Amino acid sequence: MERNVVGEAQLQVVQPGSRGSFRRRVIEAMRTVVKAPAGFCCFGKDDTRAYSDATRIVDGASVGVRGTDRIRLSAAFGFDAKSLVGTNRRAYVTSELYPESDRVALPYFREHSVPDGMTSALLLFLHEGGVLFGLAGLERRAQDGEFTDADKRALEELGPFAVAGARAQLQYDELTREAAALRALSKINGQLFVIDRDKKQVVWAIDRDHGIDWDQDVAPVADQIVAAAETAIASKARGDALPTPPRLPSGAVTGTAKLDGDPVFGGARCAVVRVDHFEKQEGGTMEGLSRREREIARLLVAGYSGVNVAAIAGLSENTVRTYVRRLYGKLGVSNRADLVRKLVAPEAAKSSASPASQLEPPPDSSLVHGDDTLD
Question: In the CATH scheme, what is the code of domain 283-369?
Answer without folding.
Answer: 1.10.10.10
